[in-house]
């Protein structure tokens, strides 16, 4: 890691990050409301909130009658009459237990402004009060509602993509599987940021990076205890998309962090997508830990990560003809860009 990143993660782990395995339910609930102030020095870490994007609110009906809250981001430059903008559904991270939509304002407003899209961030219910499959069902149902309500959103919901980080990346992949199986809605793209995709924890990086900064193997086990029902089949694709039938899924961008227990989940998933005939671009960012997308100001590759994410989403959401342009190394060949590391089918990182 760079000295700045190392110093920040040390402070994060020592003073700000309370390991989930040491928290009771009351403490977990208390931590869910945490947000970051929108002024320096905090924005030096998280990135500024782009004021060119307006934020509104809505709800989507879940299958059990619950109204799933939505946080909706729309570029102010896009007039209400401009209904040609695509839609990006975003699912936040936090191990299915923690996190909230407000924490992701810096990233979501950036995506709305730079992709020129309406971003809908889904405030799905959290474990342990709502273990699997409720969080996934909330995300699936919210996606279906968004797809059917382009007039309400003043957007073109025929151009729809999903994105999420960590547990949210898992949920984005689950939504893509569910949409494929249901025959719709048609998704143009899935962008998965250091996703957890294998509940069996069989990826080599789980042990290699067991004591990594920000996220440890012990943290992951604690999240699983809260999220997974007793006796759950850990290879069920609704929990572990890596073990699903991946044929016919939308093109994917999978971004991983080299110093992350979940690194190989993402790399294995990208390789499995390619094997199933799905275009998938995998980028392994070296010398950064899990969660780096949330603190771009102290990560040298922060700007590159966001630029790649924006470009991939723009390419697919604005592609002519509907189904999605195919970009990236669909044949597993490695490519290089300055600062990060693209990986080939073997998943080996190339230092930038």
Structure overview:
There is one protein chain. By secondary structure, the protein is an alpha/beta fold. The protein has one domain (3-317): 3-Layer(aba) Sandwich (Rossmann fold), CATH 3.40.50.1820. 33% of the residues lie in helices and 16% in strands. The chain contains 11 helices and 8 strands. The protein has an 8-stranded mixed sheet, sandwiched between helices. Helix 10 (263-275) links the parallel strand 7 (252-259) and strand 8 (280-289). The longest helix has 16 residues, at 167-182. The protein is globular. Residues 322-352 have low confidence and may be disordered. It comes from Pedococcus cremeus. GO terms for molecular function: hydrolase activity. Residues 330-352 are annotated as: Disordered. Pfam families: Abhydrolase_3 (PF07859).
Entry keywords:
alpha/beta; Rossmann fold; 16% strand; eight-stranded mixed beta sheet; disordered C terminus; 352 residues; globular
Task: Write a brief structural summary.
The protein has a single domain (3-317), classed as Alpha/Beta hydrolase fold, catalytic domain (Rossmann fold), CATH 3.40.50. Helices cover 33% and strands 16% of the residues. The chain is built from eleven helices and eight strands.
């Amino acid at each position: 890691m760079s000295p700045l990143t190392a110093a920040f993660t040390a402070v994060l782990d020592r003073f700000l990050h309370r390991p989930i395995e040491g928290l009771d339910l009351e403490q977990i609930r208390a931590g869910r409301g945490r947000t970051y102030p929108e002024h320096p020095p905090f924005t030096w870490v998280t990135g500024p909130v782009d004021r060119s994007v307006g934020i509104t609110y809505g709800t989507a009906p879940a299958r059990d009658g619950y109204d799933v809250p939505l946080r909706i981001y729309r570029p102010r430059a896009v007039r209400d009459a401009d209904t040609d903008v695509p839609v990006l559904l975003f699912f936040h991270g936090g191990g299915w237990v923690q996190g909230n939509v407000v924490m992701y304002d810096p990233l979501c407003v950036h995506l709305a402004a730079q992709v020129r899209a309406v971003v809908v961030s889904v405030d799905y219910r959290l474990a342990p009060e709502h273990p699997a499959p409720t969080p996934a069902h909330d995300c699936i149902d919210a996606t279906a509602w968004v797809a059917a309500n382009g007039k309400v959103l003043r957007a073109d919901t025929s151009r729809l993509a999903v994105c999420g980080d960590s547990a949210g990346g898992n949920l984005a992949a689950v939504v893509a599987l569910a949409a494929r199986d249901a025959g719709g809605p048609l998704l143009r793209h899935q962008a998965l940021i250091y996703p957890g995709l294998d509940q069996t924890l069989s990826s080599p990086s789980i042990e290699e990076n067991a004591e990594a900064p920000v996220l440890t193997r012990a943290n992951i086990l604690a999240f699983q205890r809260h999220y997974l029902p007793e006796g759950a089949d850990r290879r069920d694709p609704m929990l572990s998309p890596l073990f699903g039938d991946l044929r016919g899924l939308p093109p994917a961008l999978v971004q991983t962090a080299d110093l992350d227990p979940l690194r190989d989940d993402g790399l294995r998933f990208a390789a499995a997508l390619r094997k199933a005939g799905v275009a998938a671009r995998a980028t392994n960012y070296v010398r950064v830990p899990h969660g780096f997308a949330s603190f771009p100001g102290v990560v040298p590759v922060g700007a590159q990560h966001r630029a790649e994410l924006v470009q991939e989403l723009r390419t697919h959401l604005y592609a002519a003809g509907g189904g999605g342009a195919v970009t990236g190394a669909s044949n597993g060949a490695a490519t290089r860009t300055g600062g990060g590391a693209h990986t080939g089918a073997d998943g080996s990182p190339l230092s930038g």
